[in-house]
Amino acid sequence: MSFFDVIIQTLDSTIRLSVPLLLACLAGLYSERSGIFDIGLEGKMLAAAFAGAAAASVFHSAWIGLGMAILVSVSLALVHGFASITHRGNQIVSGLAINFIAAGSTIILGQAWFQQGGRTPALAPNERFEAITLPGAEAVRSVPIVGPIYSELLSGHSLLVYVAFLAVPFTWWVLFRTRFGLRLRAVGENPAAVDTAGISVAWLRYRAVICTGILTAIAGAYLSMVQSGGFVKDMTAGKGYIALAALIFAKWRPVNAMFACLLFGFLDALAIRLQGAPLPVIGKVPVQLMQALPYILTVILLAGFIGKAIPPRAGGVPYVKER
Amino acid sequence: MSTPYAKLPAWADYGLIPLINLAVAFIVAGLVVLLVGENPFRAAVILVEGAFGRGQGIAYTLFYATNFIFTGLAVAVAMHAGLFNIGGEGQAYVAGLGVGLVCLALDRIVPWYVTFPFAIAGAALFGAAWAFIPAYLQARRGSHIVITTIMFNMIAASLMIYVLRDILKPEAMQEVKTRMLEAGAQLPRLNWIIELFGTAKIRSAPFNVSFLLALVMAYLVWLLIWRTKLGYEIRTFGFSQKAARYAGISEVRVTIIAMLISGALAGMMSINAIMGDQHSVYVDLAGGAGFIGIAVALMGRAHPVGIILASILFGVLYQGGAELSFEMPAISRDMIVIIQGLVILFAGALEHMFRPYIQTLFASISPKSVGMAAVKGEGA
């Protein structure tokens, strides 16, 4: 295998690995931009992965699976909203609670319904989101350089992969070019001003957490219905937290979020490919260091050593009208 | 006032509301049991019998409770300073390294009561060190402590696997852990105390001396928070940062000291796991206790007495849950994770949900109890 093929393959797995991060990261972006911290991305993703795979295998349809994933994830997002918007509870506590509820109930319900040790039944091809071959991918495969890039790297992914990358410009457009986006950003910076303008702070924030729920649902569905053919217990394995790290790394901006997720996905792909083999120049790098690198980088960024990450000003603070 | 809610009598605030929140959490958990197709009442009976039915069960319940007292106190100390230490899990895990190094050095030379104080120091030192960086970054560089402690949990997991697998694991062993610790690092069991109450002979429960350490720490935390100058500063800082600054209390000092204490307390949990139970340093030794500490601290209203009671409750859930999974195979131990989540949700994030109703109730029964009569008097 030539060096070029290795690069193409590594980049291909980078894309595959960064998709769930990207979706979860954009999900967090909506919520946090509106002033609602959400450390419950992990839990919502996990619950959606389970609901998606379970519904897809029972109803034999990938689309019903995705619909169920969205339903469950949005419900959890609304619980988070109910606690932190309506009841002005602590947003961190609420997010944490959702992570635990999702982690426990996916295993308990999975075992009770399917009796396969917390797994859902293996999904048949029509119950998953299959790879899409872009037009002309086979024809250009033999063309040097451009051929493999088009047919390996860009073509042959699942629908949800393209959705994830299209969600980036879409989110940018919503956030910076629509009235809803302007208000969303405003409510995260200064909710009192938004309230004075006669716009409901609570309703805006609820809409933001619903967007979060939908995107985490797609992220979860990708994990259980594309990346693997069914749900495995604890399959998010900290991806929600990496997405959170990526969100900070991206300074709460959609396009940066894409690059941050691609970077973290690349680190992951590299760790898998190297499997402890020595790198040129640096020498042998422990796999654990590669796994911890996204977190270490985020801490360094947060400390203000590589630029400064300033969160939305009203983030984490419940809005109280009369004061 | 930071809370927009009227006052309730203390017993309602610290007794009734937590109980109602807890009851709701358990009712929802009962619905999950129902969804799985089992009888929630029978499940509850099995749970309580498993935890208290035999001496063995009680010993296990208290063994688990020991872990949660440490991590609960850790979360509570930080909470009094207005800091949310979500990193107890990582701090306890890394502290396991401190305990392990002390034990590996001393266990063949000296008896346990010599190793014990050094192990406490090792746990406290490593736990506090792991909490120091997030604390420093929050105090000096303004990075959010919740995020940094989450990141440090993840980094701790990677670090400890590296240290255990590549450095401390003996060559010949398959499993990723240190060599077995010998008598000098094994804490004596306390099962005889339970046997004094007339239970049958307890064979194998790991209930040990670190339970007493946990009780001592609970007392010391009470002393610190409510009877010392530092505790006063911590509470002031937690109540109002502006007031604290005005009073000349150093933000940096309080943040860092509170987090160091918090990390040290979380770290001591590893003594129970390593010296009391497994007699080696192993992968994932904190086993989620750091997170349960959050539920425990919220339920116990960050007061040591409340924390001990809440820890015993979670000990019951852990031990009873193990029995339950034998009796009802559909309900594995992961049920506890759901209950833990529900407790955190209802006792933490939604703690004020029922408060307005209870206030209305109290006001209609006895206006004086919520301070309504005084307002009327002023108006006249």
Describe the 3D structure.
The complex is a heterodimer of chains A (323) and B (380). Chain A is mainly α and 323 residues long. Chain A has a single domain (3-302), classed as ABC transporter involved in vitamin B12 uptake, BtuC (Orthogonal Bundle). Helix content of chain A is 69%, strand content 1%. Chain A contains 13 helices and two strands, in the order H-H-H-H-E-H-H-E-H-H-H-H-H-H-H. In chain A, helix 1 (3-33) crosses helix 6 and helix 2 (41-59) packs parallel to helix 4 (91-114). Chain A is globular, with a radius of gyration of 20 Å. The model of chain A has no long low-confidence stretch (mean pLDDT 86). Chain B has a domain at 60-315: ABC transporter involved in vitamin B12 uptake, BtuC (Orthogonal Bundle), CATH 1.10.3470. Chain B has 16 helices and no strands. Chain B has helices at 10-36, 40-52, 55-80, 88-106, 112-141, 145-168, 191-196, 210-227, 229-239, 241-246, 251-278, 289-299, 304-327, 334-349, 355-365, 372-379. Chains A and B meet through helix 3, helix 4, helix 11 and helix 13 of A and helix 1, helix 5, helix 6, helix 12 and helix 14 of B. Chain B: Pfam families: BPD_transp_2 (PF02653). Chain B: This is ABC transporter permease. Chain B: Its main location: membrane. Chain B: It is found in: Cell membrane.
